[in-house]
Amino acid sequence: MTEEIEFRSDVTVELVRSQAQDRDVLFAARVSTIGEQSRPEADDAEDLHKRDRGLINFLMRDRHGTPFEHNSLTFYVQAPIFVFREFQRHRIASYNEESGRYRQLQPTFYVPAPERNLRQEGKPGKYEFFPGTPEQTELVAAEVRATSEAAYASYLKMLDAGVAREVARMVLPLNIYSSMYVTMNARSLMNFLSLRRLVPGSQFPSFPQREIEMCAEQMEALWAEQMPITAEVFNTNGRVAP
User: Fold this and answer.
1) Binding site: which residues?
2) In a domain, 24, yes or no
3) What is the CATH number for 213?
4) Which active-site residues does the annotation give?
5) Which of 47, 55, 110, 199 pairs with 33 at a CA distance of 20 to 30 A?
6) Where are the membrane-spanning stretches (predicted)?
7) Helix/strand/coil (H, E, C) string of 19-41?
């Protein structure tokens, strides 16, 4: 059994299902004062009245969070396994990941791009990251490639010998790619984004690992297409999840 190994320096994020629009926030919020309403049809953000935009801003600013929960977004994500372990620390989403017990994992491995910062300086809680030297960049790429190739060869050797996939996978490194579906609402997504992106103007700046930030950047762009007003007021209010 032989497989051609692929090395990547990117992640894949796709929005595969969405029931989310800015009007969902208004629909949920106004039940408090109006009572039962029919769910709004999809509308262009430009059709929202100034008063409606003001209500969304008020809810975000004063952190009335539950109206932002009445929607749903499902993302498909391909990324190295170490990124998924960071994802799953956020207990605010539903996850379904491909299983190394039930299928042979594909030989696709993450290797940092040359522009990825490699040097960490400072004390815990005050780290800063800086570009690596050309020698460090070359070393990281060479070692990641060599260990990935050796690990996958060991994995195939055990599979060829009839060893169960759930046992053979134990030799695989954390930079092997996996895939999963992630489903969450906008409030949960804003919490995730507030922690996994470093954006100027954030009231509480966060310093995420670059690889999960790459996922967060794509997720935010896709979400902003669905709920542009909510995304706008999230930013103008310091990126604090309501």
Assistant:
1) 66, 86-91, 97-101, 169, 185-187, 191, 196
2) yes
3) 3.30.1360.170
4) 196
5) 47
6) none
7) ECCHHHHHHHHHCCCCCCCCCCC
d(CA 41, CA 192): 27
Domain assignment present for residue 1? The answer is no
The two tokens of residue 12 are 């894949």
Q: Which residues are annotated as a binding site for FAD?
A: 66, 89-91, 97, 185-187, 191
Answer whether residue 241 is part of any domain: no
Judge whether 160 lies within some domain. Answer: yes
Number of domains in the chain: 1
> Are residues 38 and 22 in contact, defined by beta-carbon separation less than 8 angstroms?
no
| Token duo for residue 134 | 């050309």
d(CA 172, CA 188) in angstroms, rounded, equals 31
What's the predicted TM-score (pTM) here?
A: 0.91
Most confident of 43-57, 122-136, 188-202: 188-202
Question: How many CA within 13 A on the CB side of residue 71?
Answer: 29
